[in-house]
C-alpha cells in the first residue's frame, strides 16, 4: 500500500504483494540493502512502505477486520 509517493533514495527497492484488500494488491517494499553488512538501510527501515516495519502490521490488522480479505 503505497504510503510514500516518492522514495528518498530515488528508485524504490523490489516490491512485494503482501495481501489483497477490496480485491486490490497491497504492495510494500523490501527496501535497499547495505552491501557492507547485508542489512536494510536505516532510511528504508523507517519508511512506511518497508515490508519489515510496523505499518504493514497495522494495515493487515485493519484489513483483517473486513470480510473481503483473501
Q: Give the uncertain stretches in residue-range form.
A: none
Query: What's the rounded overall pLDDT mean?
Result: 86
The arrangement of helices and strands along the chain is EEEEHH
Give the overall shape: elongated
If helices are DSSP runs of H or I spanning 4 or more residues, what is the number of helices? 2
Strand content: 15-25%
- Estimate percent helicity: 10-25%
SS class:
alpha+beta
**Strand count:** 4
The main sheet orders its strands as 1-2
Instruction: From the alpha carbons, calculate the radius of gyration and give it in angstroms.
Output: 13 Å
Short structural summary:
The protein is of the alpha+beta class. It has two helices and four strands.
Task: Summarize this structure as a short list of keywords or feature phrases.
single chain; 70 residues; alpha+beta; two-stranded antiparallel ribbon; two-stranded antiparallel sheet; 2 helices
What does this 3D model show about the protein?
It is a single chain. This protein has 70 residues and is α+β, with helices and mostly antiparallel strands. The chain has one domain. Helices cover 21% and strands 24% of the residues. A two-stranded antiparallel sheet has the order 1-2. The protein has a two-stranded antiparallel ribbon with strand order 3-4. Strand 1 and strand 2 (24-29) form a beta hairpin. The protein is elongated, with a radius of gyration of 13 Å.
Amino acid at each position: 500500500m503505497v504510503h510514500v509517493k516518492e522514495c528518498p533514495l530515488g528508485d524504490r527497492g523490489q516490491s512485494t504483494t503482501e495481501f489483497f484488500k477490496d480485491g486490490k494488491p497491497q504492495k510494500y517494499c523490501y527496501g535497499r540493502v547495505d552491501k557492507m553488512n547485508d542489512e536494510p538501510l536505516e532510511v528504508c527501515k523507517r519508511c512506511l512502505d518497508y515490508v519489515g516495519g510496523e505499518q504493514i502490521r497495522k494495515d493487515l490488522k485493519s484489513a483483517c477486520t473486513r470480510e473481503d480479505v483473501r
